[in-house]
Specification:
The protein is mainly β and about 200 residues long. The protein has one domain: Distorted Sandwich (Glucose Permease (Domain IIA)), CATH 2.70.70.10. The chain is built from 1 helix and 13 strands. The strands form 3 sheets. Strands 2, 3, 5, 6, 7, 8, 10, 11 and 13 form a 9-stranded antiparallel sheet that branches. The chain has a two-stranded parallel ribbon with strand order 1-12. A hairpin with a 2-residue loop joins strand 10 and strand 11. The protein is globular, with a radius of gyration of 18 Å. The N and C termini lie far apart (about 50 Å). About 5% of the residues have low confidence.
Length: about 200
């Protein structure tokens, strides 16, 4: 009985590891974007090509989305385990920069920043920007932005690297973070930042 149980555990956890490793890469063609945050150490909390390391992967349009937080010099994302004060999250209020040159198609800018763990499931993106990138012909979505800080207007052309707003905590979000994903014809597309396919636990400096 003991041997059978141990074999079962080995098979289960072995399969889990294989599935997890399969999410580290993708055969789909990726688009190259500039990372929309600067001047810090950033940690990918959700990312990759499998639901075990990226819950977005269950949804076709967001299957390659990533969620990013900022770490301090001690590798901690917030002052406290799960603080209610938004300013205690180190990424809150961080400047966001356009990852490509393109035309702004959609903007939302008037939703409140919520106190964790409150979330707004009816407006999942929160305050967001939908940008049609010229070079790649894809839609880039940047979500959960801070109320009143989205500087881009619909129909305006913006340049790669141009400031577009601040990281907030609006929409269906558990805490302040950057959410970014790319779509082409409604289907999620992998993203490369400086040639890297970011997965859970990736760090960006």
């Amino acid at each position: 009985m003991s041997l059978s149980f141990n074999v079962l555990l080995l098979l289960v956890f072995g399969a889990y590891n294989i599935l997890t490793f399969s999410g580290f890469t993708t055969k789909d063609d990726a688009v190259e974007l500039d990372f929309p945050l600067k001047n810090g150490t950033y940690y990918v909390g959700q990312g990759g090509n499998h639901v075990l390391i990226n819950y977005h992967n269950a949804y076709a349009s967001q299957q390659y989305a990533i969620d990013v937080v900022k770490l301090n010099k001690f590798g901690i994302r917030a002052a406290g385990i799960y603080p209610e004060e938004l300013d205690n999250f180190f990424i809150y209020g961080e400047q966001l920069y356009s990852p490509c040159t393109g035309i702004v198609l959609e903007v939302r800018n008037d939703l409140p920043d919520l106190t964790p763990p409150d979330a707004d499931s009816e407006n999942a993106e929160g305050n967001f920007l939908n940008l049609l990138c010229e070079d790649e012909d894809v839609n880039v979505y940047i979500a959960h932005m801070q109320k009143g800080t989205v500087v881009a207007k619909e129909g305006v052309r913006i340049q790669k690297g141009q400031p577009i707003g601040l990281v907030g905590n609006s929409g269906n979000t558990s805490e302040p973070h950057l959410h970014i994903h790319v779509e082409k014809n409604g289907v999620g597309v992998p993203i490369h930042f400086n040639g890297r396919f970011l997965i859970r636990n990736s760090l960006v400096w």
